Amino acid sequence: MKRIIQLSLICLLIITIFIFNKTYFSKNEKIILETDIPKDQLNKETDNNLIKNLKYEVRLDKNNQYIITSNLSEISYVNDVELVKMQNVKAIILDQNNVPLTIKSDYALYNNSNYNTDFSDNVQIQYLNNKIFSDKINLNFQNNMVKIFQNVSYIGLGSTLKADNIKIDLITKKVEIYMDDKNDNVELTKNR
Question: Which domains does the chain carry?
Answer without folding.
Answer: 46-190 (2.60.450.10)
